[in-house]
Amino acid sequence: MKATVYVTIKENVLDPQGAAVQGALHSLGFKEVGKVRIGKYMELTLDTNDRSEAEARVKAMCEKLLANTVVEDYRFELEG
Amino acid sequence: MRFAVIVFPGSNCDIDCYKAVEETIGQPVDYVWHTATDLSAYDAIIVPGGFSYGDYLRCGAIARFAPVMNEVRKAAEEGKYVLGICNGFQILTEAGLLPGVLLRNRELKFRCHPALLEVVNNETPFTRDYAKGEIVNIPIAHGEGNYYCDEETLAKLEANGQVVFRYKAGENPNGSVSDIAGICNEGRNVVGMMPHPERAVSELLGSSDGKRMFTSVLSAWRERHGATVNG
């Protein structure tokens, strides 16, 4: 089974990288760009076929290590 | 008084911390590898700066699960003195020993220069030799020192006197909330700070203002254990 994990900075927390990339896009002429938020994308292959077990385990991984929930949100998708 | 300087793969201020203890207060100090499972011999633990585990994922995120961190937690709970500097501060927040988190500097630049700090709380074991409100010169060197916590936590920090150091007004180098440069836990025995006192222990280094953090903790320990012990 494969898990795809997305970690993003919480809405109310300043994302300096996103702000810098937004500025760069504007200076390149992409004026339509409103807000840019930068996050992390992770692919995990899991040695299990049990979907509900995988779901609980990946959630625990996110809470414990993959995201710092003080400033980050996470979501994930399971496949296979 | 015995000091431990924790060494993770990627620590790079461990030698400076070790030398600072030797030079400023001449107390016994050991390097302790991140796999250690017993810190009972030590009275103070320094978690030094650097890039533990390459700062992969987030600064301190992987280091906090090193075996030695269980022992650091135990030591903190026993009231022993714990000082996290720079990456050490990041590790202590990831470990939940201090609240909040260190984000990327607001201007995205790695800032490496002397910094003027205000001593906000001089009633911690690490700051008792400073005057309250005193301005000290202690260098910073970080790309992720932008201290952040939610408003509720900030109000709690302020109300409990847990803000230990602030960048001098108008000179915040990283965008941290409320100009915070260093904080402590509620028990005051765990302090985390982005500036490097171990790099400010001699005028030859540009400042000796960091020295008193070491003399402070020695005097705190002596007061607790009786002045006659261990010189």
TrEMBL record, chain A:
Entry keyword annotation includes Calcium: no
EC numbers: 6.3.5.3
Recorded metabolic or biological pathway in which this protein acts: Purine metabolism; IMP biosynthesis via de novo pathway; 5-amino-1-(5-phospho-D-ribosyl)imidazole from N(2)-formyl-N(1)-(5-phospho-D-ribosyl)glycinamide: step 1/2
Subcellular locations according to the entry: Cytoplasm
GO biological process terms on file: 'de novo' IMP biosynthetic process
Any one annotated GO CC term: cytoplasm
GO molecular function: ATP binding; phosphoribosylformylglycinamidine synthase activity
Role this protein plays: Part of the phosphoribosylformylglycinamidine synthase complex involved in the purines biosynthetic pathway. Catalyzes the ATP-dependent conversion of formylglycinamide ribonucleotide (FGAR) and glutamine to yield formylglycinamidine ribonucleotide (FGAM) and glutamate. The FGAM synthase complex is composed of three subunits. PurQ produces an ammonia molecule by converting glutamine to glutamate. PurL transfers the ammonia molecule to FGAR to form FGAM in an ATP-dependent manner.
Subunit structure: Part of the FGAM synthase complex composed of 1 PurL, 1 PurQ and 2 PurS subunits.
Protein name: Phosphoribosylformylglycinamidine synthase subunit PurS
Automatic annotation (TrEMBL), chain B:
Pathway named in the protein's UniProt entry: Purine metabolism; IMP biosynthesis via de novo pathway; 5-amino-1-(5-phospho-D-ribosyl)imidazole from N(2)-formyl-N(1)-(5-phospho-D-ribosyl)glycinamide: step 1/2
Catalytic activity: L-glutamine + H2O = L-glutamate + NH4(+); N(2)-formyl-N(1)-(5-phospho-beta-D-ribosyl)glycinamide + L-glutamine + ATP + H2O = 2-formamido-N(1)-(5-O-phospho-beta-D-ribosyl)acetamidine + L-glutamate + ADP + phosphate + H(+)
EC number: 6.3.5.3, 3.5.1.2
Positions annotated as active site in the UniProt record: C86 (nucleophile), H196, E198
Family annotation (PROSITE patterns): GATASE_TYPE_1 (PS51273)
Broad class of where this protein is predominantly found: cytoplasm
Transmembrane region(s): none
Protein localization: Cytoplasm
Keyword check for ATP-binding: yes
Domain of life: Bacteria
Function statement: Part of the phosphoribosylformylglycinamidine synthase complex involved in the purines biosynthetic pathway. Catalyzes the ATP-dependent conversion of formylglycinamide ribonucleotide (FGAR) and glutamine to yield formylglycinamidine ribonucleotide (FGAM) and glutamate. The FGAM synthase complex is composed of three subunits. PurQ produces an ammonia molecule by converting glutamine to glutamate. PurL transfers the ammonia molecule to FGAR to form FGAM in an ATP-dependent manner.
HAMAP family the record matches: PurQ
Subunit note: Part of the FGAM synthase complex composed of 1 PurL, 1 PurQ and 2 PurS subunits.
Protein name in UniProt: Phosphoribosylformylglycinamidine synthase subunit PurQ
Organism this protein belongs to: Thermobacillus xylanilyticus
Organism lineage string: Bacteria, Bacillati, Bacillota, Bacilli, Bacillales
Gene that encodes the chain: txxe 1222-purQ
